[in-house]
Here is the input.
Amino acid sequence: QVQLVESGGGLVQPGGPLRLSCAASGRTFSSGYAMGWFRQAPGKEREFVAAINWRDSIRYGDSAKGRFTISRDNAKNTVFLQMNSLEPEDTAVYYCALNPRAGLWVVAGTSGEYEYWGQGTQVTVSS
Here is the structure.
């Protein structure tokens, strides 16, 4: 099994930055995997934000392009999501997820491809 724990959420003013972290533990993967971020606002469907695979291929959702950056610290088994220029529309619960059977060239942007999920961390963008 894999355990994913998100942290770093909170209240931030519009235009501000926030960095989310996802710490992975348990079963380890050396290849063929991707880790991603999804978000879900109240009453809305879960939305793909960003993902990175074991070969450092990266995919961003439309709402994240140009504002968010996904990165990884392999030594700490941690994935980060740096969010800049936050808007009220970014308010949501942000989830970390792991796809254990990821493609080499195509990083999946659908939640059904991700098997393991964290509990989520709340991000609220408001003045």
About this structure: Residues 73 and 87 are 27 Å apart (CA to CA). The radius of gyration is 14 Å. The mean pLDDT is 94.
